[in-house]
Amino acid sequence: MMRITDTVKHLIIINVIMFVGTLFVANGAFYEWFAMHFPKNEAFQPWQIFTHMFMHGGGDLQNISITHLLFNMFGLWMFGSSVEQVLGSKRFIFIYISAGLGAVALQIAYNYFEFNSVLSVLENAGFNQTEIYQTLKSSFNTYDRRWESVLDTEQLRDIVGNFNGIMVGASGCLMGIMAAFGMMNPNAELMLIFLPIPIKAKYFIPGIILLDLISGLSGQSIFGYGNIAHFAHVGGAITGAFIMWYWKKTQFNKNRWDR
Question: Which regions span the lipid bilayer (predicted)?
Answer without folding.
Answer: 12-31, 61-80, 92-113, 159-182, 228-247
